[in-house]
Design a protein that fits this description.
Blueprint: H1 3-11, H2 24-33, E1 38-40, H3 43-51, E2 56-58, H4 63-73, E3 94-97, H5 108-113, E4 117-120, E5 128-129, H6 133-151
Parallel strand pairs: 1-2
Antiparallel strand pairs: 3-4, 4-5
Helix pairs in contact: 1-4, 4-6
This protein binds zinc ion.
Zinc ion binds near residues 87, 89, 90, 120 and 127.
Length: about 150
């Protein structure tokens, strides 16, 4: 349910585990052992985490509302900086890459239009990122998140 929230946290540079195949016990175990904050819309899981003194946050909104709440609670800067972003798909770090190295991976028009590219460091992902049209949408979404954040008490 938190797929988009997870992608956005990664874009914002936060190491984010998102896996629908993990059950509640495994979630609690991972959160405890890896010092992660558990995000869930399951009130029973919230109680179980609290009992084990695992940091947990109950979220039930859409991703924009969720990110507004997260950014307020954890003082997250609502800026996407590719230098710290993680791959939204797989959570690995992304690194700046010389344009010539990704020539085969993007359409010619994209290659001609942009000079800055980033690539996922996960060998089985290797997605290429650049500041295309989607970037304008990112900025718009960030503005929406900021607006909602202002309305939070
Ligand atoms: Zn990746």
């Amino acid at each position: 349910m938190f797929g988009r929230t997870a992608k956005w946290l990664r874009l914002l540079g936060y190491d984010t585990l998102y896996d629908n195949s993990i059950d509640d016990d495994q979630f609690l175990e991972i959160a405890k052992n890896k010092n992660r904050i558990l995000l869930t819309k399951d009130e029973i899981l919230v109680e179980r985490a609290k009992n084990k003194k695992i940091p947990v946050l109950f979220l039930k909104g859409n991703y924009i509302k969720n990110l507004a709440i997260l950014s307020k609670k954890y003082d997250i800067d609502l800026i996407i900086d590719p230098k710290i972003s993680r791959c939204p798909t797989c959570n690995y770090e992304i690194v700046s890459v010389n344009k010539s190295e990704i020539k085969e991976q993007v359409p010619q028009s994209t290659y001609d239009l942009f000079d800055e590219f980033w690539i996922c460091t996960n060998d089985s992902c290797k997605k290429v990122y650049y500041k295309g049209h989607h970037w304008i949408n990112f900025e718009k979404t960030l503005e929406k998140i900021k607006e909602i954040r202002k309305t939070l008490g």
